[in-house]
Amino acid sequence: MDTFAPPAPTPPAPESSPEHDGATPPLRINRTRSGIHADPAHSHTDLDDPQLYFNRELTHLQFNIRVLEQALDEAHPLINRLMFLLIFSSNMDEFFEIRVASLKHQIALGDETTGADGRSPKAVLSDISRIAHAEISRQYHILNEILLPSLEAQGLRFRRRDQWTRAQQDWVHEFFDSDIMPIVSPIGLDPSHPFPRLVNKSLNFIVELEGKDAFGRTGGMAILPAPRSLPRLVALPEHLCETGYREYIFLSSMVHAHADELFPGMQVRGCYQFRLTRDADMSVDPEEVSDLASALRGELLARRYGSGVRLEVAENCPDALSDFLLRQFSLEPDDLYRVKGPVNLTRMMALLDDLDRPDLVYRPFTPGIPRVLKGRSVFQAIRQGDILLHHPFQSFSPIEELLIEAARDPDVLAIKQTLYRTGAGSPIVNALVEAAGQSKEVTVVIELRARFDEADNLALASRLQEAGAIVIYGIMAYKTHAKMLHIVRRESGKLRYYAHLGTGNYHTKTAKLYTDYSLLTANKALCADVHRVFQQLSGMGRARQIDTLLHAPFTLHERLIEMIEREALNARQGKRGHLIIKCNSLTEPKLIKALYRASQAGVECDLIIRGMCCLKPGIKGVSDNIRVRSIIGRLLEHTRVFHFHNAGKPETWCSSADCMTRNMFHRVETCFPLLDKKLATRVRKDLETYLVDNCQSWLLQPDGSYRLQHPGDGAPISAQETLIYAYAKGATA
Questions:
Q1: What secondary structure, in 3-state letters, does 37-51 show?
Q2: Yes or no: domain 371-543 corresponds to CATH 3.30.870.10
Q3: What biological-process terms (Gene Ontology) are attached (predicted)?
Q4: Which entry of 390, 481, 551, 578 is annotated as an active-site residue?
Q5: For this structure, is 481 an active site residue?
Q6: Which of 197, 384, 516, 730 counts the most CB atoms within 10 A of its CB?
Q7: Cβ distance 582 to 687 under 8 Å?
């Protein structure tokens, strides 16, 4: 946020323990009033009790609500507040497309399987409906009553039909005739014109008609799909805007105003916008697929027309019409959402590209670059020692430069890389194409099933194959989610390995928006392990011995539990037990139980979980030594880090994996140790900065609600702004 300039961060005090006699007491973020202590009286609590777990879907919904809350936070610039509201809309679309669709499918099959919380699918769906209706209604209230008036006060106006001047009416009429009328196709409903098959999340209108058409057919209803090629928000010419204002009109307003022109000779009694959200999940049976790429191309077409899961209609749509639409899509009344405004709010994102109002958005910052990388070969810099980058506070460009340098270096023999989400025209891909053109051995493991990026990844695979790269789609039953790059270079007559390991994707755009760690290394043990994982992905055979990395689905879950239990053992022996876990989601039951046992033993458990969290903190005798916080700010928190005090011999790991069942058992993931103590200490200090955030930090309560932290009389501390100040303003070794 831009409301304060944070001071230079003071390094956290050194830890003190029986094994480390520091004069300063240890940082105890999570102490109870009486101190951290074991609770042997509750050590036999049934940790399978459903009362100890939040429901996965409902905690996911709570994350979306925290995003919506940012639209009300006046510490954010105004345009960014609007962006948070639109992100909430996009998040809810995906929530219905995937999570609600899955529950509906489970109910249709009569599957009563429950999660650790024990709630039935029907009960969860009922709660989702109740909460989602309330929050979507609140979203439109925030838009109409708070954000749009605030934007108008800043010279950005969204004109309703009843506000159009005569000159604006004439312009809209001309625009409708020239740009809308020629490409829309109204569909009258009768026995020869059945209800059309509408694309997922498309903008449509249902029109009530009266009178007779040219063929003598009496009026009834028509459906008007809005072509996706049309902008949903149109900027008025400057000469038609009031002085000092930039003015916009919604496409839906134009259609409403001139719907009668689409049905000449008939009377339009009503025109109401609606949008159908469909099941967009894709399933490919590994036993029935011989060509994954071909199977996915077919599934992509089917995704546009999956079963309906939600119907959004204009608030003033008559019950008879909304009921008719519900019947057409085989939906229940609870699936209907009446909205006071455009049904497709996500398309307002186009506004952000049209505006030039730096006063209404976050001040930009220039990501830092470590001194060791300046003015020299990236290979030369890595040979001096491991380099850790914290994006976007530090630049993503060194990873791109490493690949570009590797593509053009005659001593580089082979490049191997995983790609999960990236663009077909990104600098990363361009470098891989160039390397393949230089007759280097280029092998790329592309995960075609990265949700909603399938089409882009199919295009990416085709481009790389045409360039001569070897393209592998990973393991059929396991998504390849690991972020790895391996380079083989000949130096002084011998082969030397270089590697990059990261917590985020090789995506230039998201690297500016998501917080992630990148490790550049020439460490022999780490590079050898990365090489073995690539061999495992491209070849066949039993799991190879991976010595330094943790590797899902083989060793990651087991070792994480072992490290948590090690903290518990230390605490029982009277030593300090402390762990910090930062990830996007925590839903895997065995990991949660291990954390409960650690809490019972007296381990301080600080969890920074951005999204879903099924663990209940603050339960007496079970989790009263656990605190869970969620950081929501201008950047998407995406780092996955595991830090263990380990009796004064701390270990810090970074990972591509979240603490979810799918990541632990159904994906290929890597988790890498920070072997350089200086880098590990730096990451621990980053984590401790998040733990003292009192501006963007939400604390999870035992009842499942989240409470926003406030500075009170103390100094405001924003972790993200502090890290921007620390890393983006200067170089860090």
A1: CCCHHHCCCCCCCHH
A2: yes
A3: polyphosphate biosynthetic process
A4: 481
A5: yes
A6: 516
A7: yes
